[in-house]
């Protein structure tokens, strides 16, 4: 039997929505527990289908019932009862500075000196969330999705909808909100050696 706990969580990241056979659509969401400051992953969250009073922004506090996922070995993965989410204040920036936000996210147990260090941790205990803080960013690149990639997206999307039809009633299928492929991908390039010297 799952043990649910009421937790206060600061949201710091959200992925693009993905089709889900069970929940129609989910958005994998990154947060941090207020009491421990540990990074967590919470799902399922069908964000575009939720009531307005439960839709949250990045760097906004929420409260919800969560439980450690029994089917996911990653220690930071938690299931959430999205129907009882309460939203609270958002942490703003201060003249462009993120100090108030950073103090909740950038903590010793969340920061790794390199990507390789995080990968070693993943092999040891399945940890898959962590921050790498290099001293120097080499480049930030934006790449436009090409026609082949967009065509592949639509093929996968149609296949996902067919699978969804097997799980849900037809009148529910009509309520699925269309998704479009992304226009760009963004790549941050950095040298991990700079992180090791920090």
Question: Briefly, what is this?
Answer:
This protein has 198 residues and is of the alpha+beta class. Helices cover 24% and strands 32% of the residues. It is built from five helices and twelve strands.
Number of helices: 5
Q: Uncertain regions: pLDDT < 50 for 5+ in a row?
A: none
Strand arrangement, largest sheet? 1-4-5-7-6
What is the CATH homologous superfamily assignment of the domain at 5-109? Answer: Nucleic acid-binding proteins
| Helix-strand topology string | EEEEEEEEHEHEEHHEH
Q: What overall geometry do the principal axes of the alpha carbons give?
A: globular
Major β-sheet profile: 5 strands, mixed, barrel
CATH domain class name of the domain at 5-109: Mainly Beta
- Could you tell me the CATH topology label of the domain at 5-109: OB fold (Dihydrolipoamide Acetyltransferase, E2P)
CATH architecture of the domain at 5-109: Beta Barrel
Give the beta-strand count: 12
Q: Which radius of gyration do the C-alpha atoms yield? A: 19 Å
Distance between the termini: 45 Å
**On the 0-100 scale, what is the average pLDDT?**
88
- Strand-residue fraction? 25-35%
Question: Structural class of the secondary structure composition?
Answer: alpha+beta
Helical fraction: 10-25%
């Amino acid at each position: 039997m799952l043990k649910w706990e009421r937790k206060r969580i600061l949201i710091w990241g959200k992925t693009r929505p993905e089709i889900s056979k069970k929940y129609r659509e989910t958005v994998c969401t990154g947060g941090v527990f207020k009491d421990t400051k540990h990074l967590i992953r919470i799902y399922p969250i069908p964000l575009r289908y939720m009531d307005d009073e439960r839709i949250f922004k990045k760097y906004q506090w929420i409260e919800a019932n969560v439980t450690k996922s029994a089917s996911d070995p990653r220690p930071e993965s938690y299931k959430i009862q999205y129907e009882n989410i309460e939203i609270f204040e958002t942490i703003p920036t201060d003249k462009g500075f993120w100090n108030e936000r950073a103090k909740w996210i950038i903590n010793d147990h969340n920061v790794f000196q390199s990507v390789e260090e995080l990968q070693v941790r993943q092999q040891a205990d399945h940890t898959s969330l962590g921050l790498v803080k290099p001293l120097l960013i080499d480049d930030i690149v934006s790449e436009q999705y090409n026609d082949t990639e967009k065509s592949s997206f639509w093929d996968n999307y149609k296949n996902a909808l067919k699978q969804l039809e097997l799980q849900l009633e037809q009148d529910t299928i009509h309520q699925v909100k269309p998704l479009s492929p992304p226009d760009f991908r963004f790549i941050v390039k950095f040298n991990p050696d700079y992180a090791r010297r920090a």
